[in-house]
Amino acid sequence: KNEVEQSPQNLTAQEGEFITINCSYSVGISALHWLQQHPGGGIVSLFMLSSGKKKHGRLIATINIQEKHSSLHITASHPRDSAVYICAVHPYLRDDKIIFGKGTRLHILP
Amino acid sequence: KAGVTQTPRYLIKTRGQQVTLSCSPISGHRSVSWYQQTPGQGLQFLFEYFSETQRNKGNFPGRFSGRQFSNSRSEMNVSTLELGDSALYLCASSLASPSNEQFFGPGTRLTVL
Predict the structure, then answer these.
(1) What is the pLDDT of residues A51-85, one digit of tens each?
(2) In angstroms, how far is the first alpha carbon of chain A from the final one?
(3) B99 and A95: CB-CB below 8 Å?
(4) What sections of chain B are H helices per DSSP?
(5) Residue B74: which residues within 8 A CB-CB, separation 6 or more?
(6) B50 and B36 in contact (C-beta within 8 Å)?
(7) pLDDT category, B90, cuts 50, 70, 90?
(8) How far, in Å, CA of B59 to CA of B45, rounded?
(9) How far, in Å, CA of A32 to CA of A87, rounded?
(10) Does A51 touch chain B (CB under 8 A)?
């Protein structure tokens, strides 16, 4: 079992829909990142969370430390949101080596 | 402020050769991390450097090595290349630690034939 699990693996939705991507992890962490990767490889850091909730434009990220779970929400989705979204965690132990989820491939249809 | 740059962007090598990849972090950033991305394994941590010292290393063989210079620029080297080393190699910089916000470079796509 992977230490960082994302769901769903793939998601296709219509433009305007509300999107939720989930990340569950099994280790104690000091921080969690949400990353966005567009075709071609470039990665952008969307959020870094250690507690609570953050919002940036149409993107919202939440984390529940007790339940070891985080969600990334996209409101009013748009075709330009089509990308792979990756969750990554920094464990408290194991020398702070970052662990990545396998990613969620999102495709927004116009 | 200029972003993270990586050179070269694309590279084709043959088995047994060695390769050196370069990463220039954002000005003022002292932590540089390297990652390997493959379709099968996804993103995996290679190593992290801070002030010219390797602070952390992932589970990769000794063929993978790196260094950081006094200006925070970093290089990684892979010796005796294998077909399985074909991947996108990404570096990311942050002010002091990978648990801070990281800024990623565009990556170097290495193909081993």
Answers:
(1) 999 999 999 999 999 999 999 999 999 999 999 99
(2) 36
(3) no
(4) none
(5) B22, B23, B25, B32, B34, B49, B66, B67, B68, B91
(6) no
(7) very high
(8) 8
(9) 7
(10) no
- How long a stretch of residues is chain B? 113
Angle, CA A4 vertex, CA B108 and CA B78 arms, to 5°: 30
pLDDT per position as a tens digit, A11-53: 999 999 999 999 999 989 989 999 999 987 789 999 999 999 9
Judge: B33–A43 Cβ closer than 8 Å, yes or no.
no
Nearby residues of B62 by Cβ (< 8 Å), 6 or more positions away: none
Of A77, A79, A76, A90, the closest CA to residue A25 belongs to A90
Per the document, the length of chain A is 110
- Does A42 contact B106 at a Cβ distance shorter than 8 Å? yes
Q: Chain B within 8 Å of A102 (Cβ-Cβ)?
A: yes
Instruction: Compute the mean pLDDT over every residue in chain B, rounded to the nearest whole number.
Output: 94
A96: left (phi over 0), alpha (psi -120 to 50) or beta: left
| Residue A84, number of CB atoms within 10 A of its CB | 18
Q: Where are the beta strands (DSSP E) in A50-103?
A: 52-56, 59-64, 69-74, 83-91, 99-100
- Nearest partner of A35 among B33, B12, B87, judged by Cα: B33
**Residues 11 to 40 of B: which have CB under 8 A from any A CB?**
33, 37
Query: Which amino acid type is present at position A19?
Result: I
Chain centre to alpha carbon of residue B79:
14
